[in-house]
Amino acid sequence: MSKKRQALDTNNPVVKGLGLNALFNDLDQQRSQQTTPPKTMKELKAQLQRDGERWRDKHKKELKNGNTKIFHPSPRTVADILERYLNYGIIANDDEEMERGQVSFYDLDSGTYKASQRTLEKLATCIERSLTTRQLAEIRHYLFLDSHRLTETRTKWLIPVNNGIYNQHTHKLEPFSSKYVFRHKIMTNYNANATEPSFNGWQLSEWFQQIAGGDRDKLLLLWQTISAVVNPNLTTDVAIFLVDNGQGRTGKSTFERLLENLVGAGNYGSLKLKEFEDDFKLASATGKALLIGDDNNPNDYNRTSENFKSVATGENILINPKGLTPFNYRFNNFIVQSMNGIPRFSDTSDALFRRFRVIVFDHQYKATAANKRIKDEYIKAQRLLEFVLKKALSMTPDVLQDTAESQEIIKDIKEDNDSVDHFIENYLPELESTRIPVAFLFKLFLAAMDYENNPQKIKQNTFTRRAKPLMAEKGWEYSRNNLAPRLHWEANDMNKLNELDIHYKYTVKINPSKYQPLFNKTNKEDDKPTDN
Questions:
Q1: What SS3 state is found at 143?
Q2: SS3 sequence, 284-314?
Q3: Quick check: 31 pLDDT over 60?
Q4: Measuring CA to CA, which residue among 208, 210, 214, 217 is closest to residue 404?
Q5: What is the percent of the chain with per-residue pLDDT over 70, rounded to a whole number?
Q6: Buried (b) or exposed (e) across 129-161, using 16+ Cβ within 10 A?
Q7: What are phi and psi of 87, to 5 degrees?
């Protein structure tokens, strides 16, 4: 019996009138209300266990035969007890997103909000161990109904790291708080005194210099990539492609492991380009700071890239996990993909390709014990990771550097993936005409693609639509029906079609005097609009 209970005068008529058990229960309830709020998940679980025991003790019934009947809290009661202690809600931008959102709660240990169904159920069973699967689902439903809307913290200068929230304005750490809604954090400590370490003469900065090959823009992009991984709120819409020619030992995978070590185990997801369009695999990537795809097969054909674009831009996506209810989710992470060679896409729009930055790893390293230690030991060392984090936090790149190397690779990727672009780049310069009928150009395109063993099934209207902007960039203006080829048409061009059309499938007759859809070379002196 507690000292407070011992101090009670049980002969006092007031005390007798209240009933000892009721009075003791009231004292217990007052004491529980004065308890300091839990500061760790362990303390929270212990508190929930006490509340469950207290509820059962309060509601037990003494039977006439001397036995005691124990009642168990209902799912509604368990949900009420959870709501007493949890900071919870649905992370969403509007009420529509809330309708298909997930219940997230503040994890006292990590300082971030989690949507772990398993953890919620474990917390519920701390209150009542006998809960059935159906009752647990009911509890989750009550929490969903009672949830208020949480707005994810996307303040650019606040970055959650392992030991607090780094403020880039004050250059100091702030303590974690439930008022900040972060889904993940970087699992490396911020150390204001961190300096670059040296491991048997090897230093990270010198390695980066080797990768960059003396290109300052490329060196900057390497560090900006790390900065974007640390703070995805700062840079949006861009993904990094790490590329080599497949010869191996280029340092590409070592750079990937460095990024993974920096964000920490469980804080990165493995997702290749084509897997972004797989609902089940995309579901496994929620709640991660980094989405990294290792060794994408350059022969894989990415038929659609809609989810990839939505993840890169932080748009709302309907996630459909296997065996669970679909839910809305907005990714807030950075994407890094590695590959041996150039990937293939059916989407050849600028909306996709402007999201890419390419870093080429073309320096081959020898397979020595010393180089093996870089990957196995040095890039895992906390003093190196703390130095990398400190440097990354000192950077605030709104736009990632678009290097000349990256631009050239992206141009090659686009041309290789866009058959119309490839055709215009490689076959248009061979033509002598300065007014080219669309009917001829389309047939030449089909013949050229067949000749390259890349047959096309697009219609002439589709070809024209895709060719217009590409031709315009090269000084060709599209005329729907206002011009005739006339003397601007060179009959020799027909010979080029005949050379490529080895199976005689793409014959076409051109009447130079007929008004027809054509492309007109506008920057030619002899191309006068009055000459129809």
A1: helix
A2: CCCCCCEEEEEEECCCCEECCCHHHHHHHHC
A3: no
A4: 217
A5: 89
A6: eebeeebbebbbebbbeebeebebbeeeebbbb
A7: -90, 110
Helix (H) or strand (E) segment spanning residue 43: helix 41-59
**Confidence grade of residue 2 (pLDDT, cut at 50, 70, 90):** very low
What is the three-class DSSP state of 214?
Answer: coil
What angle do the packed helices 419-427 and 460-473 form, to 10 degrees?
A: 50
Element (H, E) at 334: strand 334-340
Tens of pLDDT, residue by residue over 272-324, are: 888 888 888 888 888 899 999 887 776 666 666 788 888 888 888 888 887 77
Please list, in sequence order, all residues whose beta carbon lies within 8 angstroms of the beta carbon of residue 213, skipping any fewer than 6 positions away: 362, 363
Nearest-5° Cα angle at 470, 469 to 475:
90
Task: Name the E strands within 216-326.
Answer: 239-244, 268-270, 290-296, 301-302, 316-319
Phi, psi (degrees; rounded to nearest 5) at 247: -80, -15
Helices 460-473 and 438-451 meet at what angle, rounded to 10? 100
What gap in Å lies between CA 147 and CA 89, rounded to an integer?
4
- 3 state DSSP class of 338: strand
Residue 347: count of CB within 10 angstroms of its CB: 16
pLDDT tens digits, 282-291: 888 888 999 9
Tell me what the pLDDT averaged over the chain comes to: 88
Three-state DSSP state, 97: helix
Strand partners, 476: 521
Alpha helices in 86-215 (DSSP H): 95-99, 117-127, 133-146, 204-212
d(CA 271, CA 23) in angstroms, rounded, equals: 60
